[in-house]
Amino acid sequence: MKVPVYTLDGGKSGEVELPSFFETPVRKDLIRRAVLALRTSRLQPKGTDPLAGLRTTAESWGVGHGVARVARIKGGSRAARVVQAVGGRRAHPPKVEKVIWERINRREKRLAVLSALAATASRRFVEERGHVVGEAEVPIVVEDKFEELGKTREVREVLEKLGVWGDVLRAKKGKRVRSGRGKMRGRRYKVPKSILIVVGEDRGIVKAARNLPGVDVATADVLNVEHLAPGGVPGRLALYTVSALRRLEERFGGE
């Protein structure tokens, strides 16, 4: 499969042969499983103190008082130590022994990444995710000078000339306040995912593009399935540099 190589002016400077793994069959089920495994690997086991709610001198009054025979605080009548007491211990608290990681085989994870890479080369999958593609061919491949851009204004001008700036505006327009308690915990806003920029080496592009809504920048060496298929949905609009394709071919052996 050959795709054109775009210049920073939006013109075409030639063609490049995509690695053979861009023709891998898209396995949605495998991609979702790999994303789940990646997300759960970041979870930290949590539990409670085994003696929580039990450090008290409360004792039952026994029988003959017309009240339940639960432990009660000395000097008062408030129940303690039992689960049904107000402010008492929890019946089934979280335990550190709980299995929270979703494991996945190494070869399955590799196949999921290749499958997600192939989805970025399919216009149907990219449009199903809701991306604004324009007239550019997917995947979008640009020359290596793109990695040297150091200003957000320069990145914007290139994306406008490639016809994909509308996808960044879509992400900006879709920014909204998160529902629930997350608003109080450092994640107040939710922003839709936009363009994924894959480079061979960071020569200034990360700092230039990091403030654009929904835009992510990743080097080919650390690219994973969550970059390519956020939320387990394949078909993210991706922009590759020529050196990034070369690094990916070295990493995955062109298979």
Key features?
Ribosomal Protein L4, Chain: A; two-stranded antiparallel sheet; 255 residues; alpha/beta; 10 strands; 2 domains
Description:
There is one protein chain. The protein is an alpha/beta fold. The chain has eight helices and ten strands. Strands 2-1-5-10-8-9 form a six-stranded mixed beta sheet. Strands 3-4 form a two-stranded antiparallel ribbon. Strands 6-7 form a two-stranded antiparallel sheet. α1 packs across α2. The chain is elongated, with a radius of gyration of 27 Å. The mean pLDDT is 95.
In short:
By secondary structure, the protein is of the alpha/beta class. The chain has 2 domains: 2-27 and 104-252, 3-Layer(aba) Sandwich (Ribosomal Protein L4, Chain: A), CATH 3.40.1370; 44-100, no CATH class.
